[in-house]
Model the fold of this input.
Amino acid sequence: MVLFSIAEPGQGSARQVVRRKRAVGIDLGTTNSLVAVAKEGRARVLPDAHGNRLLPSLVRFFEDAVPLVGDQALAADGGTLVSSSKRLLGRGLSDINYPLPYALQAADDGGMVQIRTEAGPVSPVQVGAEILKTLAGRAEAALGGSIDGVVITVPAYFDEAQRQSTQAAARIAGLNVLRLLSEPTAAAVAYGLDQRLTGTVVIYDLGGGTFDVSLMRLDQGVFTVVATGGNSALGGDDFDRVIADWLLQESGQPCGTKEDYRLLLQQARAAKHQLSTAEQARVQIGSWQGSLDRAKLQQLIDPLLDQTLLACRRVLRDAGLQVGDISDVVLVGGSTRTPRVRERVKQLFGREPLSSLDPDEVVALGAALQADLLVGNKYGDAALLLDVIPLSLGIETMGGLMERIVPRNSTIPVVRAQEFTTFKDGQTAMSLHVYQGERELVSDCRSLARFDLRGIPPMVAGAARVRVTFQVDADGLLQVQAEELTSGVKNSVVVKPSFGLEETQIAAMIRSSMESAALDKAQRSLRERRVEALRHLEALHAALQQDGATLLDDDERSVLERAMRELDAATVGTDARLIETLTEQLNALSRDFAGRRMDAGIRAALAGQQIDAIGE
Amino acid sequence: MLNYFSLLDMPVAVDLDRALLDLQYREQQLRWHPDRFAAAPAAERQQALQRTSLLNDAYLVLKTPLRRAEHLVELLGDGVTHNARLPIDFLEQQLSARESLESAAEAHDRQAVEVLRKTAEASASERWSRLREQIAEHDLSSARVSLQELQFLHKFVEEVERLEERWLDS
Done:
């Protein structure tokens, strides 16, 4: 009989089916990270093999083994445990003015800060890459294949250096980044697509260490960020700090060491969490016993919440809107679980805020929806996201002043040009220093890059016409070009932030990551061989105990036992191939024994059946 | 020079239908946004990037009345930008308004600030009607004077708003 293959005419083989592309959204958080996938406008978080949805953003580095990530990192001992590395991305040593449980060092080139670990100095970018690899692995396992692209979320207030560092981490992890997406924007996408929300929406995002507020218009598949604002140094961690300080004052207990204060902060956090459901939380510090109630908590955190509400009002003003124009308020971030936060937000906007999507998951869900669209899995209404730059971009002019070229809240992509001139007679070069920020003096803004325009023909001061063009693409990444118009001399830079990584550094990290991936694979394979060998030995051991005496003669038995001892010895070593060979050898030697046991088993079973049959 | 009105398919005029502008912008963005070209060749991606950058600029100019009028006068004058000479009595008025604002700010005199804002706004609305006539009559040099006066008044109102914001925040 002939079997026909079923194929559409002209399509060649039936096997050539257009595969739905696998794209995921990743929320790379300070405390926890997660990965989600979307299909036809619905998104879901991908849990690990044990059903855990959140991956603690922790990596433990060892001198002579591959790093462990997440819960595994937490459970293991030894090595160096790195937490909150997101706060170090794109930052120099002098930016870090708070205590961390590990040591930092300046990079050789004075660039991004490095973490001292047992595995040697590690860049925060590499820490991020480890977390991303783990999440990608989780997604590959769940979706059954390699990932075509990812959307990674970043706080709206992330500057150029922080965004580029996030992208570098993804490249090191071997991921194709479709887009970096602001966290509040991602949350709005989740509500807009998944929950079909429309209108003018405020996204109130209070995380552990940052506060972001965004105003968005959600309208028939087009989501426009109207304005964003916030405070990059205000979050739930500050709640813990004010509670801890109050506890210290109340208890009159001394707090000498950093470790004491760390434990105190833990108690403060536990009390805060209890008060999300209970009216009162008991606290014990040393011999002192006391309690914190909701009224006191309110009194402590209200000044902090005032600051967030002020930022909300400012964003409304930036957008030229009134409270009455807002159709919904969405809560994002774990810190919005504190009931007082909800209450104050409700007071300001005069409506019950939405939290139908889990505030810890909503950002990843939105990123997944955007990833699915960007990778080209179309469905229903076309959705489009129009984002803005969160901070103004400009260059330094005479007297250390910031000349804004692209103002904040400009819709991206955006291109803006401005003309400058020379200051001295015969000046042939111009140094351009690019800054990001809202302040008037460049010393209060963040330095992004510096480059020179050389070869300007000598002219009297003020005669040269240098046009500086800023181009910000849809990822929010900046390219600056300078051109002297009378002579046509040009120079341009893709902005490499002062605390970013050089291309060569990224390449080296990618190489070492591939090597460690090979090492990782070898280690995993060794572990698997060992487990298999031990399982086999154990089974054979039990079989020998049961049937060895009846089914094997002495010679057969001693050969088998020798092979078992050899394999047993090999499992202690690290040679995966030897374990595999010896396992195969043992398999071959025991096949006959296994066959005899099977026969004996069948005979017994048949015997049993016959008895049963007779019984019928 | 680039005509933002035609880029967004809008009639060339001082006043425009904001809802129509929003709609045109949306349509063009849906068609040209780089996200639509995520998998396209680099050259097309670059084109999408440039096109949407222009669209964003055009939209910003057209939705801001004063910038829209400036763009229109520039278009009508074939891209020529002149710095108009402002009448001396207008400049004097502006100087004294600024002085009054400063002293009102120091004295925290909200009522005086509110009066100054109202005066500036009335003055601006008078110039807007003048500007409409001047453009209709194609009197570009007078239109440029009106535009520049409007810029002064606009900046003044902005300053008042900033002051009021500071009071609101504190």
Remarks:
- Helices of chain B lie at 4-7, 18-32, 42-63, 65-76, 88-106, 110-136, 140-169.
- Residues 20 and 155 of chain B are 28 Å apart (CA to CA).
- Chain B touches chain A at residues 26, 29-30, 33-36, 38-39, 49-50, 52-54, 56-57, 59-60, 165, 168-169 (CB under 8 Å).
